């Protein structure tokens, strides 16, 4: 669904703006604090400047979604929280109606991402927590995918290394709570995936395989 909201225009353009109750400027534009019910059924309660949503406000979509936060010239811009109809929620920075800057997104299944955003996507540094297992990924993101150096933290071990296009790839190490580290790298190997019928063509699938190069003990931390 779109989270932009319905546009509002000046009355002299001859467009039905719906109902409005609030302050206006000398040009009769919506200006100051007001409440509006838009033609599509959405509602807005908050501040305006020269006919545009501007400042803090609450926008309620007729499908149940809601945005509470800052607007600049009619667009979500600054800090704000958006509740989506599927139960997910985003709290953080916005730039011209898009998630940008630092923000926290809670997904319908309970997963959570806390980190940098760019143009609606996870991009930069961030932590993703998987609710079903408690596993966490902390590290670099590029256009919504794990990419670059990162750390995958499980209940009794962790992996530190390189990710590419959301997959483990390249050198890294596993660190186990029992007191050892396994060094190596993930290498892409080709695997042939046969078709379900004789007419289906076989597909070549790249799968990341872990190649261990060494195993070392973890020295206990010195006290004092």
Automatic annotation (TrEMBL):
InterPro entries noted in UniProt: MORN
Chain spans, region Disordered: 1-55
Keyword Flavoprotein recorded: no
Residue spans of biased composition, Acidic residues class: 1-14
GO annotation, cellular component aspect: motile cilium; nucleus
Keyword Repeat: yes
Domain of life, source organism: Eukaryota
UniProt keywords, alphabetically: Repeat
GO terms under biological process: axoneme assembly; spermatid development
The protein's name: Radial spoke head 1-like protein
């Amino acid at each position: 669904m779109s989270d932009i909201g319905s546009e509002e225009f000046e009355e002299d353009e001859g467009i039905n703006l719906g109902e409005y109750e609030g302050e206006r400027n000398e040009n009769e534009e919506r200006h100051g604090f007001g409440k509006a019910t838009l033609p599509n059924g959405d509602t807005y309660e908050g501040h305006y400047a020269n006919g545009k949503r501007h400042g803090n406000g609450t926008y309620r979509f007729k499908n149940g979604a809601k945005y509470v936060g800052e607007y600049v010239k009619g667009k979500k811009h600054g800090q704000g929280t958006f509740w989506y109809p599927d139960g997910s929620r985003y709290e953080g920075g916005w730039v011209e109606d898009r998630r940008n800057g630092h923000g926290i997104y809670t997904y319908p299944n309970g997963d959570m991402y806390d980190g940098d955003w760019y143009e609606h996507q996870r991009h930069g540094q961030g932590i993703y927590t998987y609710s079903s297992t408690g596993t966490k990924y902390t590290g670099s993101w590029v256009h919504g995918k794990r990419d670059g150096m990162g750390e995958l933290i499980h209940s009794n071990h962790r992996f530190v290394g390189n990710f590419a296009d959301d997959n483990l790839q390249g050198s890294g190490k596993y660190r186990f709570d029992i007191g050892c580290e396994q060094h190596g790298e993930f290498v892409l190997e080709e695997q042939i995936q046969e078709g379900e019928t004789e007419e289906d063509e076989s597909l070549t699938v790249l799968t990341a395989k872990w190649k261990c190069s060494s195993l070392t003990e973890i020295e206990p931390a010195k006290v004092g």
